[in-house]
Fold this sequence. Notes:
The protein has a single domain (2-72), classed as 434 Repressor (Amino-terminal Domain), CATH 1.10.260. The chain is mainly alpha-helical. Strands 1-2 form a two-stranded antiparallel sheet. It has 6 helices and 2 strands, in the order E-H-H-H-H-H-E-H. GO terms for molecular function: DNA binding.
Amino acid sequence: MAIKVKLGVVLAQRNVKSKDLAEYIGITEANLSLLKQGKVKGIRFDTLEAICRHLQCQPGDILTLEDNPADAAE
C-alpha cells in the first residue's frame, strides 16, 4: 500500500493556483511542488488543515491509500 497525493487534481478542480495556496498556508512554492509530486516523507497536520481550509475539502480528498504492485509481488 502507498499514500498518493492528489493535491494537483484538487487544485485544478477548485481552479486554485499553487502560488496562491502556498502564500495562504505559508510555505514556499518549491515545497508545495514537492508535496504535489508526492516527494515528501510527511506533512504537518496544521499544514494539511490549512490546505483543506483554503480548498474547502477533506484530507481524504488530497491523500489516498492505493495498492502498490510491488507489495503484491512479496
